[in-house]
Design brief:
34% of the residues lie in helices and 11% in strands. It has helices at residues 80-94, 138-145, 162-178, 183-187, 216-249, 253-263; strands at residues 45-48, 69-72, 100-103, 126-129, 152-158, 190-196.
């Protein structure tokens, strides 16, 4: 039973029953629950969509796998806050090995334990936000994740939401500049805004943004946020070169060689 707290609860959420005659698993034993998947040593990719994630064992199940891809959806029976708590619980437990993270719900810095030495998401390279991700939470969620070495940010959104999404992305980038926090720009290479027409094709990889015609305002919004990121990266590169030049002025030949090797 992957969500025992739902038995007899309202609203009625489907739960798993009739598993009494399933043979004992050599690794998991009789514990047939979603969190038990984390005990599979060979597990690299975990995608769970349209499923209740309220099992508290997500927070305490020992992680025996080196999970690389984590794709979490949400349960439409529950509130956004409940789905957020469930997502944060899983990320806190398995996030330390995650390279690619796809989110359906917001996460907050108050619940993601980033201050610990073995904090989650220290290896995160790719972030994907699905069309169900709330626009109003884009800035807060990306701020929470901004200390990770993110190289690619991909946002799949409804075509009508493109301008709002791009404005939120610009607000996020601007907030990092205003705080003098430029670490993100050193890693982030691409911002991809991928429009979908409906939820049926939102999770279909074969349908790409090239098949959807954008109007002039939408095209300009995408171009503007991508150019803003490019300008920030160029400014950061120029600042790095200037700092290196100042250091090299007083360095010996051996020190110069070492600095150049470290930079390259």
């Amino acid at each position: 039973m992957h969500a025992p707290e739902l038995i007899g609860a309202c609203p009625s959420v489907p739960v798993v029953v009739g598993d009494e005659d399933i043979p004992i698993h050599p690794t998991l034993g009789t514990e047939l629950s979603l969190p038990a998947l984390l005990r599979l040593p060979t597990l690299k990719t975990l995608r769970i969509r349209d499923t209740h994630l309220g099992d508290p064992r997500w927070a305490e199940t020992p992680v025996y796998c080196s999970l690389q891809v984590l794709d979490l959806g949400s349960c439409y029976h529950e509130s956004p806050d409940f789905n957020r708590i469930c997502t944060e619980r899983i990320v806190n437990n398995v996030g330390h090995t995650i390279d690619d993270l796809s989110l359906n719900t917001a996460i907050t810095g108050d619940s993601i334990e980033l201050s610990k030495p073995e904090s989650p998401l220290k290896k995160l390279r790719k972030i994907q936000l699905t069309p169900l991700f709330p626009v109003e939470n884009v800035v807060d969620t990306l701020t929470t994740l901004s200390d990770s070495p993110i190289e690619q940010l991909s946002v799949r959104c409804h075509q009508d939401d493109i301008e709002d999404i791009c404005n939120a992305l610009e607000d996020f980038l601007s907030s990092r500049v205003e705080r003098g926090e430029t670490a993100l720009h050193k890693h982030l290479k691409d911002i991809i805004v991928d429009p979908v027409q409906n939820l049926d094709d939102a999770f279909t990889l074969a349908k790409r943004s090239g098949l959807i015609s954008l109007n002039e305002e939408q095209t300009e919004a995408v171009r503007r946020v991508q150019e803003y990121l490019r300008d920030l990266r160029l400014a950061g590169d120029a600042q790095t070169l200037e700092s290196c030049s100042e250091i090299l002025k007083g360095a010996s030949g051996k020190q110069v060689a070492g600095l150049l090797a470290a930079t390259i």
